[in-house]
Amino acid sequence: MDMEKKLQELKEYISSYPDFPKPGILFRDMFSLLRNPNAFKDLRDVMVEISKRNIPDAQAVVGLESRGFLFGSVLAIELGLPFVPIRKPGKLPGELNKVTYQLEYGTDTFEIQKDAVTPGLKVLLVDDLLATGGSLKAGCQLIEESGGVVAGCLVIMELVDLRGRDKISQPVFSLLEF
Fold first, then answer.
1. Of 14, 66, 68, 102, which has the maximum CB count within 10 A?
2. What is the CATH number of the domain that holds 14?
3. Range of the domain at 66
4. How far are the Cα atoms of 82, 87, 105, 137 from residue 175, in angstroms, in the given order?
């Protein structure tokens, strides 16, 4: 089956919940896709194919807390690369690099272990969703401030109307667009 057809089938597994978590929001839930083992396998295969084709020189996979862990760790295993988590404050031991970034209402912080990204390491950054772009941009910034190079970003879903991609200077590959 060609990739476009496979992506279209995967999109059908995404459930939509109006007015969640608050009125006016249409929440796209990918956990319904993960409940189907065959769809999850197809998603894995597509992630691997797109990564190999577009970011072949990646030396590590970095996943953003928390759903980026689900997809990033699977991808790291399939590509034979190390997996590195970026976490919220207070979740990682040892010496850390951190970045604070702006949200719609306030700020948040990401942390990474200092020894996890070595200077010049080419990283594939993975997350579940690209919406306004704040967390993905912060992940890129944290990797670069740690000495790494973001070779590309892979997201499972992109909410195109929110234009989060415009905030990211690194290549972004999204599988499912809404």
1. 68
2. 3.40.50.2020
3. 3-177
4. 22, 23, 28, 18
Is residue 49 among the annotated active site residues?
A: no
pTM listed for this prediction: 0.95
Catalytic member of 44, 53, 65, 67: 67
What are the per-10-residue average pLDDT scores of the chain (178 residues)?
Answer: 91 96 94 96 97 98 97 98 98 97 88 97 98 96 98 98 97 97
Which H or E run includes 5? Answer: helix 3-11
Per the CB < 8 A criterion, the answer to whether 161 and 126 are in contact is: no
* Pairing, β 106-113 against β 96-103: antiparallel
User: Residue 57: exposed, middle, or buried by beta-carbon count in 10 A (0-12, 13-18, 19+)?
Assistant: exposed
67 is catalytic: yes
Q: Let me know: does 136 contact 111? Beta carbons within 8 Å.
A: no
